[in-house]
Queue: 2 jobs
Job 1
Amino acid sequence: MPTLLFEIGCEELPAAACEAATLQLPELVARHVPGGGEPHVFVGPRRLAFLVDDVPEREDDRVERRRGPSEAIAFGEDGTPTKAAEGFARSSGVSVEALERADGFVWAEQRVEGRTAAELLPEALARVVTGLAFPKTMRWDASGLRFARPLRWLCAKLDAETIAVALGSVPSGGTSQGHRFTAGEVEIAQASEYADRLREAGVEPDQRLRREEIVRALDDLGEWHDPTGVLGEVVHLVERPLVLTGAYDERFLELPMRVIETVMQAHQRYFPLGPARFAFVANGGDPDVIRAGNENVLAGRLDDAAFSYARDLERGLDAMRESLPAITFHARAGSFADKAERLEKLSGLLGGGDASREAARLAKADQASSMVHEFPELQGFMGAEYARRAGLPEAVAAAIEEQYRPAGAGDELPQTAAGRVLAAADRVDNLTTAFALGERPTGSRDPYGLRRAAIGLCRLAVEGGLEIDLAALVRRDLELLTRQSAEVSDDPSDVWDFVLERLEGLLDVPVEFVRAARASGLREIGAVAHLATTLAAEADSEAFAGAYTAFDRANRLAGRADGAAAALDTRLTVEPAEDALVEALARAGPRIESAVEAGDFGTALDAAAELGQPVDRFFDEVLVMADDAAIRANRLRLLLDVRDAVGLLGDLSQIPR
Amino acid sequence: MSGAPTYQEMLLRLERFWADYGCVIQQPYHTEVGAGTFNPATFLRCLGPEPWKAAYVEPSIRPSDGRYGENPYRFQQFWQYQVVLKPAPEDVLDVYFESLRSLGIDTTAHDVRLVEDDWEGPTLGAWGLGWEVWIDGLECTQFTYFQQLGGLELDLVTAEITYGTERLAMFLQGKQSAFDLVWTEGVTWGDVFRENEREWSVYNFEEADVPLLVRRFEAHERECERLLARDEPLPLPAYDAVLKCSHAFNLLDARGAISVTERAAYIARVRHLARRVALAYLAGRQVPEEEHADAPL
């Protein structure tokens, strides 16, 4: 069976569009191109293409069942077919005798011939093009077509046969285009020859092979780095990778290496290669000419960075801090100076010492620096650099540097105590500010990265051992925001739930244990996490079984009943089992409470377990719903007290048994 | 590069190339603009259904980019070479590459690349998609397919080609500082403009009269609105008032007189005016002159 080639020729696509197409093409092909196996997808800046082997030359014929008139209309009383039946049979291409009768209607089975591939492909392929969705699209001519960049040609071949695809005013035929500057039009005589013809014309259409080629060439150069991850983009910036090296003047090594690497990667997509050398990937050309040009450009960029760096050093961190009132943090929540004030207060609440308060005061000063203005990704790093140059204690500088960590899932936590405090304060403030201004993240929109901030907070508590009394911090931050005249519109106390929900994905225990622990009334993130892991670790123990029984049985009955007394009255307990439970609660209750308070959940669980047997006995021997209303109300109260005492360990009923 | 054109020769070759292509070769506009896009030959002419091809040098005034003539890459005034082709021809990229070859750039020896760069001009309510063009890693042209101007979807998509003339000349002449560019034999770019950079940087950052600029912004804003409110609006003079507002705003920004919050508000005011001018301009152009008298009210 024949092989199908379809190539969508474009002006240079952004890397993000190439990646979107890589993901979407297999599914679009499966949906629109009948038969055929898994497509081989080719993606690059000037072309999106695929090959499909074994495309059926014809669709299978199929049988369609058509409904005709009702039986009453189609047949006379004597059972003979009427004109209506004859007409329906004729239009369905069957004889009247072949009509079926069912459900009060007549039916005809019609055989529909499958279309040939050549017949159905033009429309199917056009749908593949229009089915591609990109982050941003544009118009480029009067056709009204939208795509990531202008479409310039289509090339569709079924083996040797050219398929014409009608789409806007885009020319469609059996030719492709080679490398933009070294080759012209390329005749594709056979679909299967596509990649070979393009390789002859200076284009490697297969993104996987381009990537391999680049990585292999970089490996040959020795130790190369890609600190900000530009390789994926570079693969889609070239059609014929040419990996070259260059050098820069050693005088630039006076700049922090991270600045040099950022200049190289952010502006130029170069790969650092150890001191004063770099690698880059060109799209062909004369290596000596290109090397000289790129070295010149990098020298200029580094010169520019050195100029900004020198200016910043001359100005100093304190002067930068003084200009923070003029730099807005959020249009409705004041400046970075306001933010720094909040961070300082929150750092105190988080138990931070002098270093973290000093770091908080200076944390955002680098927002006023030329370097961060040029390279926002250097925030924190530049502040720390300038703090060190100003002779500030290393603990302060390190905290400034570490405040944005962890930046993502795999990123490390701050190494220093002051860094962890500042990182937590910054995240609490970002969350509280957004929530208080009514800018909670939605399913698809999280422009301030608040989910990441919440996960970071959880990690600082769980892995970093930082005590984060979140509810209190949010309240304090709200007070500060209000005092600073931020345009507060919402109560941000749901920051708590938002953050704690992230704990469910973070801890290595079933979510039910986290949900149980979240309902404990604990208001410190690390404690909730510790409780959840303790419950999960103890889930099979006798202690857990006892506590669970006490909580669950008490909760099942009393939790849903109305009419509990306001307080337990021991004069109204009449049964021995009742008295036994009262006594057990009096013994266990305070111990649960003090152990939970001390964070010793194992001991608390042991104490709670002591209520299991008395609760079982109570249910065996005592009728809770007694006729005497006062006694009934008292018994319900007793059960609620048991539930609440054990409930300090969370809502154990969340945990399936 | 041996035999590299001087700065003025490079500009002359671009003029020749685009004149031969059929562009109207215009001269720089007389009012300060931040980019060639602000010139009415781009902003207004790219609205509406009439085809248009134009090219011109535009002095681009960006007060906060001044560096007192001390930084070899940053200036408060630099020179763009601006080309607009409306509608964008199918082979527009090939024509552009041809223009590079007319400057002596061998596109098979150099690494010429199109790197995604989406352009947005918030004061003009304008955006488009396109690229920065790299030659051996140097960004030397901004290429944009306009999608909206004045917040309005465009009837015809214009291709805008903006050469950074200093960058391009630095590449051609192999210089690391714009001040060292050979303008013409014996005269450098620095000879012509260094003192200009120094004095204007002092003015922009230190001397410009803030209360005067605030009054000027407001006066031009009122003027713009008055011209648009006439029975027969005057969009062309009204547009100059928009440009003057925009320049006053840029100067206020350079003086550090605008907080970030106010900044957004100022930009919104200019954008609002630009949109109204665009609408008035379109309304005026929809009825050809000779039919005007007979047009129903």
Job 2
Amino acid sequence: MSDMPCLETHALCKSFGALQVIQNVELTLAVGERRALIGPNGAGKTTLINLLAGRLRPDSGSIVMGGTEITALTEAGRARAGLARTFQINSLFRNLTVFENIFLAVSERLGTAHSILRPALAEEEAVALSEELMRDLGLAADARLVVQQLPYGHQRLVEIAIALALKPKVLLLDEPAAGVPAGESGVILELIEALPKDITVLLIDHDMDVVFRFASRITVLAQGMILAEGAPDDIARDPRVREVYLGKGRHG
Amino acid sequence: MSAPDRAVPSARSVFGRLAFGVKPWEALPWAVAIACFFLFPGYVPLFGQIVIMTLFALSLDIVVGYAGIVTLGHAALYGTGAYASGILAVHGWTEPISNALCASLFAALAGFITGAVVLRAHGFIVVMLTLAVTVTFYEIANHTGQWTGGDDGLRGIDMSPVLGRFEFDIYGDTAFFYGLAVLFVAFVFVRLLVNSPFGWSLKGIRENLGRMHAIGCPVYWRLLQAYTIAAGLAGLAGALQAQTTQYVALRALSFDLSGDVLIMLIIGGIGRLYGAFIGVPIYLLAQDKLSAQDPANWYFWMGIMLIVIVLFARGGLLALAARLTELVRRRWR
Amino acid sequence: MGDWSVLVSIAFLGFAYGMVLYLISVGLSVTMGLMGFVNLAHGVFAMAGGYATVTLMNRYGVPFFAALAGAFVIVALLGLVLERTLYARLYGTSDFDQVLFSIGLIFVSMAVARHFWGPLTQPMLVPAYLKGAITIFGRDFPAYRVFLIALSVVIITILWLTLEHSRFGALVRAAVDNRRMAQSLGVNTGRLFAQTFALGSGLAGLGGGLGADILVIAPGYPIQYILYFMIVVILGGLGTIRGPFLAALLLGVADTACRYFWPQIGAVFIFLLVFIILFFRPQGLLHRGRA
């Protein structure tokens, strides 16, 4: 069981018209692994996340999670199977409160979201789990605030909270601290480090400090292909990786 | 909608669930309705109409206001309920409550089937499909005159007394209270629905469809569920219409009626549960007073009003009221 | 032998019908693709063109061609005014708002039509030289329909050439393809939208006048025919001008055939067909892969 990879892709390909955005990507993540995905702008990182999450369909290749092929599953199906993701730009329910944002995800996971028979606030289990999650992420004080009114750093926490509410086996984090002012990003980074060890995490980020602090293994993507993959120190020393970043700005 | 400090134990009983979060002023519409019955006896038939249309508009609110599905075809479901009720009655099924429930189920089925097709599309194609549904149902009813009476309409609907005691008469008293009772039960149900996890997920779908997919929500089925329930309620309203006016016309399946009920709802405001209760009486009372001479004139002003509302008063009267209370609240601090 | 004749008749009438549908719908396709506006009220412009043509001819004795040209100009102006004063305020708003606005406009136009022209269908008085039949390959065809097809082909050819080779056409195609890019390249999108809307409305008015005996002119016009225009646009592909041509011809022939062979439910048949198509391909038939 511990030998079986948690998430794999085989020969994954995706083109937009004539442009081949993802070429034959082979990825294998072990259970509980902390993998970082880095690469210059336009390398296809977000496209890869979208393929994994089910927002895009690959042209060819397959995706396997926990030994089961999930290539044919929809985005929602994959979420129900235990794959959660966050978005680089917040995708929240802006006019709903923090509590409601998290509750929606919790109730989907519990399978009670279709229920008409009881007021939402009387769903004891869902309410309790939502409150617990808010406490864990330090959002308890914001519970009744509409997301739109929150500072960006807190909104980002809600973004992650929604993904965590799904109790995922695999968590895809797309630049979790992106756009967050420096003073507030510490909370997010601590949160990521404190994630349960049984969740497999794939993290995209441009900040090399974050990447090296967090990842046990790094995959470098360039022009839709895996350029290099290995332990952080090896990647740091790899001349090809340096070349691919040479002369290009670090911000995206 | 906000987080309580702990889950509320009183919601364990059925009554607790149904009355969850009830505020005192929520008794107002019902008190007003009953008061009007005694204060303006000459208008009781009109009040009966208002009650029926409120139920219709309430069902539309579920689709448009909560599920966020833009439909021009809600009359198709209303008319299906009306014709189902009428046809059943003409063929001997005259017990009102069971007749209404049966017609409502029939409309829910029609809603399920049409919704299954319509909801596969996205964007403006959905609107077009709902319009096509309405036109299709209309044409079918028009061409099956042996069942529906065609152009002349369906007559000969003679219902038995409600609960065996209350006869339908020309004064409309029974019709009014019967309709009001049905509306009350339906409203309690809708209120429960709107505050349930299901209702919350509809708001989520309206707010951010993509995120709902990403959290595992089976959006298509959730919306279909909402659409079917709303269809059943619309059909229930149609059945009430057939039963109380003893007549069903093709207009019950028309785009015109779809547009009318949409306007009634918009006046009050969508997605706020009580929009129907505000918009419908205003529309019907105004229509009663103003459109006696020239119906074409009425549609002219309705069109103007729609355009004005869209440009300047989005969200209807309830939104306006909400904005005003917010302003007042701020001044008061 | 008789069956063959019937099929030719149906094809011929269907073609004429399809041409009219195309003339009216092409403007809708372009403006929906360009402004992203759900203009359910498009039929209003076709109806206005029909009323303008008929009124110019019947009440003011304007000759047929001049009446058509007049209808084009009048409706184009109407479109321009409405676009600048009303439509432009609603670009980018929700589908729901746009639908509501369109319904409002439909109601207003229907009421105006009923008020000034009454509830009955306007008779189309075809000029004498276009009456009767023309013999082609030994077969009689209604002269007016032949003329209609011929004139439509001319207009459509001019339209296509204009859109392919003029600067205006290039701007429209660019903006449909990528509005933001066009804006950042300095294209005055406001003026482009206005011109395109005016042209599309004018063509719709022309189609309405030309096709007044196929799509009859009565106050209920905008609601009665909007589905057909929408079907043409959806099947043909939003924002394109050739796809809708094929779609219009197909729809014209199919609808004519359905009404002939199954007069009872003919009208409904088309919609059922459309349902089935959209069930399997919710994004449209000749759709060219845009989201």
